Amino acid sequence: MTNINKKSKVEILTGVRPTGDLTVANYLGAIKPIIELQNKGCAPMVFVADIHAMTDSEPSTAKKFINEVVADYIALGINPNKTKIFVQSDIENEVAVLTVFLSRIVTVAELLRVPTLKDKLKAHCKPETANALLFLYPVMMAADILLQRAEKVPVGEDQLAHLEISRELARRFNKRYGKVFPIPQPFQTKALRILSLKGEGKMSKTSPQGAIFLTDDAKTVAQKIKGAETAFEGKMTEKLESHILLAKELCKKKSEQEEIDALIKKHKKGELVMGQFKNVFTRIVQNFLTEFQTKKAEITRDPLCIPSILEQGAKIARANAQETLRLVKKAMYHY
Questions:
Q1: 248: domain range?
Q2: Interval 172-191 mean pLDDT
Q3: pTM (predicted TM-score)
């Protein structure tokens, strides 16, 4: 058994699926935490998971949105000089090979117990109709993480089980063949539950009337927030608390947060201020989206901007992945 004991290559690794227009909830849950990490001096790496997207989308659909989602990330504040971005399929051979190797050391029964897979099978399809790529999703996720020998992976509660598969596969490989992989640690981000403006459940692109998209214009934002469910005077509801959280998270000025606090204080005392709150909420969201959309237009004006950024990221990701595979094969084949 080889004892290679290599260190991490990437400090923090996270992935994003290219699945169309993002909402402000996507920004707060997945993108803002990365921006905060890069601003603290960390060196995150982001990959666009176009192969993962094929579990429920055609390859052409996944490819279609790659540049769009990268432009979104940069316009929202991701700095490609600090946070490297690459496309998963740019290292597709390495991903495929490590997925095969890791598949040898996990059982079918273990994969069937992954909670998110069980939930998807219940909600969308049955085992007899689900494609095998969906079944192998946790193994491919492990390959993504372990190829980059990532030290930390930002995860929400729903992804903890997938990350644990990655951690367990790293431990098993190291025990059987030698210490090639660092054990990736979960980096739990702040849980923000942003609810739909209308109806039940979280804000989601599947319920567009209750979601604010990054592509929405000022008029659409005003209409959606005007129709948002709040609460009777003097009452606090989960829905209203979500709207307050969303407004505060999108604020650019401390004075706006203070304005919200003053209105909610009056609301709790029984005053009729929900109309005023919605006006403030609307203004904050409109200002946020106007700034974002202006920056995105500047980025996409140069047709070479996104491809150049992705190629820089791909060079680093490819070098890491190829080095990792050399170590893996050396350990497995003893050469």
A1: 208-297
A2: 90
A3: 0.89
